[in-house]
Design brief:
Layout: E1 3-6, H1 12-25, E2 29-33, E3 45-49, H2 56-64, E4 70-72, H3 76-84, E5 88-90, E6 96-97, H4 102-117, H5 130-149
Parallel strand pairs: 1-2, 1-4, 2-3, 4-5
Antiparallel strand pairs: 5-6
Helix pairs in contact: 1-5, 3-4
């Protein structure tokens, strides 16, 4: 299982959890961003810098992921693409996107985008919390243990 990270907006604490998980398990970890990011010197961890522009990191990840891979993203359209390709998608807040919930999440995202485009203040996402960090770490651990059993 290759772990891909939509890294432009990924919280630093989540990247740290991923670095430790990659070191512990040996899974390849690739962070994709349109700016340079520092990553630990390890043979299974790398950083890909894509050109600036709308969804360039998403396009790179979508072009390179394979079934069974894991993508860390808060981007619902990317998560929908990942799920459609039989890979796993996990938000930095620990929400696992799957065939059972991705359509509803995509519809909600599109609805909120429509509201924002008409000038409605939707308030934005809740701040990242310690509970979110723990939920992410727990879900990641379960996914990696499941991959190790296969």
């Amino acid at each position: 299982m290759h772990i891909w990270v939509d890294a432009d907006a990924c919280p630093g604490v989540i990247k740290d959890i991923l670095f430790r998980a990659a070191a512990r398990t040996g899974h390849p970890l690739t962070l994709v961003a349109n700016q340079y990011l520092r990553v630990p010197a390890a043979p299974n961890i790398r950083m890909i810098q894509v050109p600036g522009g709308f969804d360039e990191a998403d396009k790179y990840i979508a072009a390179h992921l394979q079934a069974g891979d894991l993508v860390i993203t808060a981007d619902i359209p990317l998560a929908a693409d990942v799920v459609a390709r039989d890979a796993h998608a996990l938000s930095p807040k620990g929400e696992l996107y799957g065939k059972d919930n991705i359509r509803e999440l995509l519809d909600l995202r599109n609805f909120m985008d429509t509201l924002r485009s008409t000038g409605v203040d939707t308030g934005g996402p809740a701040p990242f919390s310690t509970a979110d960090r723990q939920a992410f770490a727990n879900r990641l651990d379960r996914l990696l243990r499941g991959a190790a059993r296969q």
